[in-house]
Amino acid sequence: MKFKSLTRDRKFTVFTGSSVFDTISKDQKSLLFLGTESPMNQLTDIRDRAHLPGSEVKKLNFIKDSKTLVFRKYYRSGLRSHIFEVLLAEAVLKETQGEIIDGIRMFPRARPVKMFRILRNRFESKTAVFREIEKYNLLLKFLGKNLIALSEEFLVDYRGTGKSQIVLCGLQEYVAGPILDPWRLFGEASLMDILHSHSLVEHAKKNIAIFVKKIRQMIDQTGYIPDLAGIGNLILTCTGDLKLVDINNIVEIKLDDTILLDDKGYPSCDVSIAVLSILEQNLLGRDIPMDDLLYRHFLSTERKDRVKAIEKEFYTNL
Question: pTM for this one?
Fold first, then answer.
């Protein structure tokens, strides 16, 4: 089948028909997106489903039915996306059936080669989709490839409901490592508990300092901040590198009394700024100057109480 490109630049490519993302590497192209003509026998839109098993991913019209790959539902899937581990079938076989190593049967866990995201967002136009993709490009511009989980964002022609619809997907770098939970950080000792090495802790602190600096630059120059609040959004690798893995939620900052909510009704802006302050104060040991307008505005006692009330209502309604 031939594919007609709707738009193309250095960052992403959009196709009609079954999707092929032809700007990615040969190895990645062999994994995904050479879909068949038959849509999945499913009238409920995948973006509306609370749970989409990995076994059903290959039934989607834009996914290649490959025997070399397995899609496994990722346990950190959130409100905005279905997230799947992309695994080699032979690695899954070793995980389930084991392999003999030095006379002992071992069951090594299969390591993802990529993470596959299907966003739940609905877009009124292709222009709106491109604005969404630009959020990732903005992060890449300010944070660089060392501080985010790199992703190839692309559109597919989803036909599972009987009609063609544009769906935004991502094929993202897999980042291994423990979650850096900002609400459980109590100084440098928290990093030592994770890394168990003074040299790695110092390396991590340098990376965190760079991360904070670049986030502050992004705030100053654009008026936006990425979502730092979600559990699992920040990963600390075993070598002390910090990575932001949630790349699809960037929220506007306004220095007024309004507590801005994201598209899911969560006060991501205020909570993300609180996380930024935790990284600076608790991990880097910095004192927040009294003339810091950002923190003085968002971290006032009265405002934090209002944010907590909104968070409580948000989680109650989930």
Answer: 0.85
